[in-house]
Structure formats: structure tokens, C-alpha cells
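Tutorial sheet, problem 5. The two components below are modelled jointly, 226 residues in total.
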Amino acid sequence: DAGVTQSPTHLIKTRGQQVTLRCSPKSGHDTVSWYQQALGQGPQFIFQYYEEEERQRGNFPDRFSGHQFPNYSSELNVNALLLGDSALYLCASSLRRVAHYEQYFGPGTRLTVT
Amino acid sequence: EDKVVQSPLSLVVHEGDTVTLNCSYEVTNFRSLLWYKQEKKAPTFLFMLTSSGIEKKSGRLSSILDKKELFSILNITATQTGDSAIYLCAGRGGTSYGKLTFGQGTILTVHP
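Model answer (C-alpha cells):
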């Protein structure tokens, strides 16, 4: 049973560029959440997708957007990259209909903005 | 705004020692408190606590929640070098499937 997978593993971009990160949830999961983890910090919630809609959003600007596909996989898009966007981006999947279900995390995408 | 604070930020111990990691939280409409272990990249789930005073155990690890005082502790007994990792605490509020608010993490280093 495959866990949460993310691609790519590493990415280097230049300021002002745009980036798309991808996530496939654990088999059977229907909800995907995205987190940003800066060096030395805990993960910060970006947004959560369920039934192809953004259901909850953290304190991130509109440059951060996402999408969820019918097969539950998800994309995170970041426009007009800033140096401060350099971080580990984690995707977590869960099952919404089960109360208090834990979130399973993927290995993350390390984004470096130069 | 929800807030989770962990202490200490880092801890260095020797194999066989017992450690206690602390987590205090201020989470609106609190639902649950989760502990994760992060070794390289992906945080791996350890415990979820929803009820006060009930200890959760898994091998040498245990955790308990105090909803009155708004904190949780994670205990690790007879530490091993493989326990070296970042331990993250997260609070969930609002709904049982909502966002997690993480603390900064505690970096645990276990020397042989």
C-alpha cells in the first residue's frame, strides 16, 4: 500500500518564477492538506482540499493556489516566487469521514529560490 | 490565532536516559493534540490525544493530555540513538478533520 507520494523531490527556481508541486494521497484517502516548513520551524498550514474544493486556508497570500483532481491527487502552485518561499513543502492526506483521523505526510518537496 | 509552543527546543541525552518533551497549546474549539516524529523529511504519526488524563502508550513512548491546563507531554524511556529526531506537537481545532497548528519542534539528540 503506497503512502503519500510527492514530486519532485528537489527543485531550484529563480525569483519571480512560478512552480507546481504534486501530491498523490495514500490509497483510500480523500482529503489533502499542504504545509510549508521553513528551516528550523514546524510546518505551517497552507490549505486543505476536499471534493476538489479548497475547504480551509491558512495565512498565505494569493500567490499560493492549489487544485485537487477527481482521483484525489493535488497540486500546489506558487506564483512570483520570493526568496522567502524557500522551504520544505509537505503534503498530508487523510480521510474526512472518520472523526479525528490523523494526517499522513509525504516526504516533501525541497524548494530553493535563488 | 491558534498557537502551539514546545519546550525545550533542543535536548541532548545519552542512551538509556528518560526524556520529557512539553507542548502547550492555545487552539480555538480544540479537538485533538497530535505528536509526530520527523527524522529526515516526512513527519510520522505517533499519538493522537482527545481526552484529558488518558495516557497513550507505544513501546517506550507515552503521552498524556491535560485539557484544563492546555498542555501535553511526550515521554521516552530508555532512549536509543534511533530516537534522535525532531518531535513535533500539533493542535487541531474547529473540526475533527481540520488543519493542524504545529509547534516549532524539539530536536532530540541521543548519544551512544
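Marking note: Chain A has a mean pLDDT of 95. Full credit if you identified this.
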